[in-house]
Design brief:
four-stranded antiparallel sheet; 389 residues; hydrolase activity; Class A beta-lactamase-related serine hydrolase; hydrolase; Beta-lactamase; Diverse_Enzym_Activities
Length: 389
Amino acid sequence: MIHVPTTSKAGSRLSTLRFTDPQHEPGWRHVVVPAADPRPLASAPRACEVSVAGAGRRHTLPEWNDATWTTSLLVLERGTVVHEEYSDRDGAAGVGPQTLFLGASMTKSVLAHLVGRAVTDGGLGLDDPVTRYVPELTGSGYDGTTVRDVLTMTSGVDWVEDHRDPGSLASRLLGCFPDGDSRALLREVRPGVAPGTRWVYNTADSQVLDWVRERATGRVYADDVARLWRDLGCTSAAVVAVDRTGTALAGGGLAATARDWARIALLAVDGTTDDGTRLLDPGWVAAAARSSYGFTGVGRLPSSITTLAGFGLHWWPLDDEGVRLTADGSRGQFAAADRHTGAVVVKTSLWPYDDFLVDRQARDLSYLGLHALLDLLAPTETHLKEHHP
């Protein structure tokens, strides 16, 4: 995500990070997430013509892809792939269906699914204090916060998510991977304002949320993702970055194929798998797609982030009715869904990061394109009544 601009001339680590097949990034540690029960998505390709109005003009689909540095684009209708394309934009050869795309902060939305399963299973309560599960955070800024506070990024802790400033806590947190201790840094985070009164985009909140989830379930992030991967029928192994202690970058380190990212968005539609197995409570699914506070509604977030989305339960609502939502990661990673139609769009990208104005325009234009693509798959009235009485 884009956050508070800085005048620092130092390049961000996010501007040089490998986003395709990051498991080959020198010096990083990754844990493999196996695909234990693969169930390939059906395909029925057809022409996909769209006009995206934004940035002062209209764009055809190829023009939109170029303007937003698309590396993969996948469109699904009722679980079937109807459009799929790939493009090399970082010098990597052979980008295609088997390429692992770093989701960056899309990883947070996978974490939301894991937390939702823990809540659905009854092992975790949203109003529980964080320190009930992680007493190590007693005396830190997270002392007095609840699971709900970190899930909605309203913890109130003293945090600025500025990856362009190499001295920021956000940069220091990313710098814990691969050779640091990320959870030791979380204990350094200080209080700011009262929980539940202010929204600030905060990867530390995600890392704390994962720590809580781990304690509640007894499963580390990679193992819980592997359980999800099996139940969703994901077809390719994924990887997740870990620090020297084995703690996952649950706020940004998961890489998967475009088709498997589509499975993550499909689960956000109604909480069930392709074979009808329910993984998430319907109430959880609906809550994740809506903003929890008036100040996190669509158009109410800081304009330095976007005016076209809000923030729900580690997902980004694209309307206030809870119909459309997306996962969103730095430099243009998206997995969007329409909960009424079941349509899904996955778009990975590699736009420049260090110029925050370029980053902001590309993100907003991407949101407009996601809507345009989802609009192509509007169902018949009969289908709406059948699935959403």
